[in-house]
Amino acid sequence: MKRNMKQAKSGRMLPSFLALLLGSGLAFNAQANTSTLKVCAASDEMPYSNKQQEGFENQLAKILADTMDRELEFVWSDKAAIFLVTEKLLKNQCDVVMGVDKGDPRVATSDPYYKSGYAFIYPADKGLDIKNWQSPALKDMSKFAIVPGSPSEVMLREIDKYEGNFNYTMSLIGFKSRRNQYVRYAPDLLVSEVVSGKADIAHIWAPEAARYVKSASVPLKMVVSEEIAPTRDGEGVRQQFEQSIAVRSDDQELLKEINTALHKADPKIKAVLKDEGIPLL
Length: 281
Prior knowledge:
It is built from ten helices and 13 strands. It has helices spanning 5-8, 16-34, 56-67, 84-87, 151-158, 162-171, 187-196, 206-214, 252-264, 266-276; strands at 36-42, 44-45, 49-50, 71-77, 96-101, 108-109, 114-123, 144-145, 201-205, 220-224, 228-229, 237-238, 240-247. Helix 3 (56-67) runs antiparallel to helix 10 and helix 7 crosses helix 8. It comes from Methylophaga aminisulfidivorans MP. Residues 36-276 form the Solute-binding protein family 3/N-terminal domain. Keywords: Signal.
């Protein structure tokens, strides 16, 4: 952090004893900070996180802090988790953000602690065999539960199902306008649409769907999409992602400490993810 040079150039000098006291205070604060891990988290965005600490990312944060021998402090945000980096981490209100894509250019990211993907979710008793976006059974379907702006939407356009699905997609959020605002498509709702038969199939990020697939009142099948879905333009669409922990780009010492802790705690981390039902790649 750059110092404020205006006071240093004003010609006014602090008494030496006061400077020593301030220096001691700064050293104390720095030491106190290294004993606490401040994790920015959404206060109500399950299955990732909530203030009751019932999300799987809350559990992973506890494992991380414990492995680092630090006291865990959650810094809560009432906004969606997509705003945690810009409105919390980069404003120095916390030390880390859980669950960001590896290589996110806004931050420095840890070694990935798991990899998963978007997945097709459909009733297990329908005799369907859906493995990818080229599966013939998709041609006979008309209602797809997806999140707009995701790889699912891109692929829905690719198989010429987007326009016919548009009104259904908007009905999932009560036809609210998404202009200039973020509207979350809750994963429990999307899974419940499949359970009730209102949707023929869902295609969403598996880690946020797994808990609800596991607890569904009817058996559901979850099939992870291929890493790169082929498209007509030849570019393809990535559907599998490695998840990391974000720190500020200049916080390299903390990043090293986190990487060491992640490798040490890997069995515990994987146990939480498997218990959640998240398909790991």
